[in-house]
Amino acid sequence: MAAQAEVLDELHRLLARLPQLTGALAASVDGLVLAQDTRGVEPEGLAALTASAQGIALRFADVTGQGAFRELLVRSAHGYVATYTAGPSAVLTLLAEERVNVGRLHLEGRRSGQRIHELLGAVVQQPDRAPEQRPATTTGGALPVRTPSARARRTPRPATGEAPNT
After folding, report:
1. Own/partner pairs, 142-146, CB within 8 angstroms, 24+ separation
2. N or C: which end of the chain has fewer CB within 10 A?
3. What pTM, to 2 d.p., does this model score?
C-alpha cells in the first residue's frame, strides 16, 4: 500500500512529539497491521486485540446511546493503552508509560488519528469480500444482535427450589 510509508512516518513523528510513548500501531478495523513501531510488542496480536476492543467499545457506545465511538483508554499498572479512530476503516493504538500526560496523549492521538485517516483516504483496501458484505464502520451503523436460542427461551427454574413445570 502506497500510504503505508506515510503512515509509518506519522507514527514516528508522533513518537518523537510524545517521548512517553513506548509504541504506536495503525491497523484496519479488521485487525490487519497497516504500520507499526511497537518496540517489543507483537504487532499482529496487538492489531487483532485492537480490532476486538474497538468492536466492544462500539457496542458500548451504541447500547448506551452515547453516539459514535471515538476513543478507548485502558489504564494498567505500568501505563496506558489508548485507541483512537482513524476514519471509518482504521484505528490508531498507542502504548504509553504511566507518567504520560493523559491530556497530551489524547490531543496527539486524536490529531494523528485524523492525519492517518487523511493519508489512507476514505477507504482502506479490504481483503476479498463478497459484494454484499460491508466493512465494519465506526459511524454508529446497525450492529448484529444476538437472538436467544431455543434453550435460553425455556421457562427458567423457580428460585424457591420448587420443581419446574414441564
Report:
1. 143/58, 143/59, 143/62
2. C
3. 0.71
